Amino acid sequence: MALKTDVLAQLDTLIETGKHLARTFRLCEMASYESTASEEELRAFVTSALAAIERITGTESQYFKNIPAKKVAEQIALAGFDKSFVPTVTGVLTSLRSDVDRGYLTTLEARLRANVHDDFMVQAHELLKASYHVAALVIAGGVLENHLRQMATTRNLTWTGSGSIAKYNDVLRDRAYAQPIWRRIQAVGDLRNHAAHGNGTVVSAGEAEDTVKFIARFIADNPT
Question: Greatest CA separation found in the chain?
C-alpha cells in the first residue's frame, strides 16, 4: 500500500535522524549537556517530528501528548541543551511507526479521508453561495459516494460491477441505516446523476442546497 509505505519511510528517516542527534550530546561544564549538532539541525528535527506526529495522529493523540509541551517550547527557543528531549521524541516516533506497521494505518486513512471530505464539502458550500448549485451538488455527491463505498467496505459488503451511490446504498440498507434514509439517498443519487451528466437544468438551487446539507448531516451521523 503506497500510503503505508510512504508514512513508514518518513518515520524511518525521522527515527534515524533522532538517533543520530541523540549521539551528538556531550557532557560539558557544570554537569550540563550540549549537542555538537547545529541549532538548525535540532530545530529542524523537532519541527519535522512534531509535524509528522500531528499529521498522522492529531494533537489529541497520546503520541502527541507524550511530548512535554514545556520542553517543546524550550527546544524551539534554545535547541541543544536538554539531553532527554531528542530521545523522547525519537521514542514516540518509534512507537508510532510500530503501530502504523501493525495496522494503525486504518485510522490514519480515515483521518486523511475525513480531511479531504471536509475540504470538498467546504468547496460545495462556497459554490452554493456563488450560485453554482449544480457544481456544488456534483462535488457533494462525489463525497457521499466515496463515504458510502467506505461504509460498505468496512462492513465487508460487496456489490456487482462498478460502484455507484445506488449500489452502495442498496447493500447498506437495513445494515447501516433504515429504509427512510435509503430512500433519501436514492433521491440524492438521482439528482447527482442529473447534475453530473449534463442535465443540471432539472436541479433547482433549493434542491441542491437541501441535498448538500443532507449529505453533511449524513456523514456526521454515520461514520465509516
Answer: 79
CB 138 within 8 A of CB 115: no
Quick check: 134 and 203 in contact, CB under 8 A? Answer: yes
Show me where the domains of the chain are located.
2-104, 131-221
Cell numbers describing residue 187? 433521491
pTM, two decimal places:
0.54
Query: Distance between CA 83 and CA 28 in Å, rounded?
Result: 12
Distance CA 90, CA 104 (A): 18
The DSSP result for 118-130, as a single string, is HHHHHHHHHHHHT
Q: Are residues 148 and 185 in contact, defined by beta-carbon separation less than 8 angstroms?
A: yes
**Distance from C-alpha of 224 to C-alpha of 211, rounded to nearest angstrom:** 20
pLDDT in tens, 135-167: 999 989 988 998 899 889 888 999 998 889 999
CA distance 189 to 104: 33
Neighbours of 36 (CB within 10 A): 11
Q: What is the mean pLDDT of residues 212-221?
A: 91
Distance CA 211, CA 188 (A): 7
- Those residues whose C-beta lies under 8 Å from the C-beta of residue 112, and which sit 6 or more positions away, are 3
